[in-house]
Design brief:
By secondary structure, the chain is α/β, with parallel strands linked by helices. The chain has 14 helices and 16 strands. A hairpin with a 4-residue loop joins strand 3 (about 60-70) and strand 4. Bound molecules: pantoate.
Length: about 400
């Protein structure tokens, strides 16, 4: 493109339907000041949409043809005709907390989704639907149950329980261990390892969407984040791309990485730098980076944790992780971090899987992490007064 800055965009029906709906930025990132994409894309993009039947599995396939456009401030041109076929899939979301409910709600707009969660939340969803407020505003109607239905045959199983419940969750999910692709988006380390002991095909992922559990049947999408997916075991790039496209189609922008361990460590550093401080200060994420005294603590915790991540072989950089932590806190400024929500609701926190993972690894490498160690001790002291038990009922495998 000779004139002006080059921009690129794949416009598809799903891009259009998700814009505004999920409150997300358009799927492809671009920079072209004073450029009105919605206007231009509506002028230049053409699409048709149909429904096909797949004889073998009797499942619907959404079929979309769209025109890929490239342009700049003065010019736009069609460069490639693309077709995307999104299969209608069955998804089981095990752990309908804030993040599980969010992914389940959005996926249920196109797919057959069953959310497994606690009784009060499930009965509210069954009677009134699942209300998502904030950056995304929809009322979703997924199937909802307190235990895995016998008839379930999911293509994807999203494990979104708290990390201390992963081992029990997998007991309930064993019937799908050979066939389904298991996806973990949980905080902390060790979840993918635990799932892969039983399930054959595992995708590990991270997400920095800020979602608050408001009450039964209702969540608030308080901050837009990023979702990153990587192969853990038994999956290849085409599985990751398929999952990424399923998410993109419902307005959840995701990317694929070939180094998921570095991504998990990076997310761990972000969590360990935000969650315990937000939990103890009882402040939403934005406030802990606006207050200069708390910001100094966030930065020191982040520095300690990044040293540990490096020693564990993650390819991370101090400055990049400091920047990422502050960016996540700012983008999710209105969110109460999950650890704060846990304390608010008198639930056990994920301090052991988050800060505990840093403290244990630091000990192995003889790296001093005094601030992380202090936060670990303080949050543990706060949570001992709350229920220490798992949310998964092992005997009847309900949540
Ligand atoms: O645990 C959380 O709350 C989230 O992972 C994050 C990204 C810190 C946003 O609040």
């Amino acid at each position: 493109m000779k004139n002006g800055k080059r921009v690129r965009r794949d416009e598809s029906p799903s891009d259009m339907s998700s814009r505004g709906l999920a409150g997300q930025a358009p799927i492809s990132s671009f920079s072209c000041p004073s450029f009105s994409w919605p206007l231009l894309s509506s002028l230049f993009s053409v699409y048709t949409k149909g429904v096909l039947k797949v004889a073998k599995r009797q499942k619907n396939v959404y079929f979309a043809i769209y025109i890929k456009t490239e342009g700049c401030e003065t010019h736009i041109e069609t460069v490639l005709e693309c077709a995307r076929i999104t299969q209608f899939v069955e998804v089981l979301v095990f752990g309908a907390g804030a993040i599980g409910s969010f992914f389940g709600a959005l996926l249920s707009q196109r797919h057959d989704v069953t959310l497994i969660g606690r009784a009060e939340h499930i009965s509210a969803i069954k009677s009134r639907g699942l209300r998502v407020r904030g950056k995304t505003a929809i009322i979703a109607k997924p199937h909802a149950a307190i235990r895995v239905p016998r008839t379930a045959s999911p293509d994807f199983v999203f494990v979104t329980t708290k990390s201390y419940d992963t081992a029990n969750a997998i007991l309930a999910l064993r019937p799908f261990a050979d066939r389904a692709i298991f996806v973990t988006l949980q905080n902390g380390l060790g979840n993918a390892e635990t799932i892969a002991k039983t399930a054959r095909r595992v995708v590990a992922g991270t997400t920095t969407h800020g979602v608050t559990f408001v009450g039964p049947g209702e969540i608030r999408h308080a901050g837009i984040g990023e979702t990153v997916l990587g192969a853990w075991s038994g999956v290849d790039e085409s599985d990751l791309v398929r999952l990424r496209d399923l998410l993109a189609d419902v307005g959840i922008v995701a990317s694929v990485t070939s180094d998921i361990r570095t991504e998990l460590w990076s997310k761990l550093v972000v969590n360990t730098s935000i969650n315990p401080i937000a939990a103890l200060a009882e402040l939403p994420n934005g406030r802990i980076v606006r207050d200069k005294h708390l910001l100094a603590v966030v930065e020191m915790v982040c520095r300690e944790a990044t040293e540990v991540a490096k020693a564990e072989g993650a390819r991370v950089d101090q400055e990049e992780l400091r920047h990422r932590t502050l960016l996540v806190a700012k983008r999710t400024a209105a969110n109460r971090a999950s650890m704060l929500q846990d304390l608010d609701r008198h639930h056990r926190t994920e301090i052991d899987a988050i800060t505990g993972s840093i403290v244990r690894a630091a000990k192995r490498h003889r790296i001093p992490v005094p601030l992380n160690a202090a936060l670990y001790a303080l949050v543990r002291a706060r949570e001992t007064e709350f229920r220490p038990t798992s949310a998964v009922n092992v005997r009847d495998q309900s949540l």
